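Example (one chain per record):
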Amino acid sequence: MADDLINDQTAGIERLLEIMRRLRDPETGCPWDIEQTFQTIAPYTIEEAYEVADAIERQDWPELEGELGDLLLQSVYHTAIGEEAGYFTFQSVVTNISDKMVARHPHVFGDESRDKSAEQQTRDWEAIKAAERDGKAQKGTLDGIAMNLPALLRALKLQKRAARVGFDWPDVSHVLDKIVEEAGELVEARDSMGHEQMVDEMGDLLFVMANLARHLDIDPEEALRRTNAKFTRRFGAIETALAARGKRPEDSTLEEMDALWNEVKTSEKAQKS
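Predicted structure:
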């Protein structure tokens, strides 16, 4: 019967759950899958989430379908491990998130009015989440923000949470002033302090840059991903141009590569205009 389920392409999530059970079976499963734990699978979970974001950024919808499946598998993997340890089951996880979504949307599933702005709905959402944190004995304003988030994303979340209780600059000009101050302190650390002090000052500067992005309503992770992609694209064009000359980057000068970079940059701007 289990084989029938595994081979039934119409069986949906139950098929995937059964596949995972078979993979994790201590007697007949896959040795690699049997060895995995929450800790060993977590890096794959993070990687798959980024690959979903990458497919979305590239608007590659067939690729996104596959990546979403890979990400779903991560949830199934973790819940299988949790079920084996007696912590939770896939169904309890589904129940938990379903209950949470219903509770956080009283204007959809309850008797609250839907006639309010997106801004008001965001405030209501945060109030509900704050009440949930109180129920979990998370009393501090910054409690509950995951430690293992990418540092730039965690900085943004920390700043947003602090801003909700009034700890924030009133306008972007103060943030810009702080960037100048922190940049100066980094230069001072470079000139007269040790490496550890430079690391601290660089962290301060990056933290304020994240704050500037927040004040400008920019996702700093998205902005940096776009710049990474732009750099990759432009440097690839430099390599292509050099190859046409029978050269590689290590065979050329900085001036030559810089000139090619500016040509690529000018060409991209012309294409956008």
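Caption: The mean pLDDT is 91.
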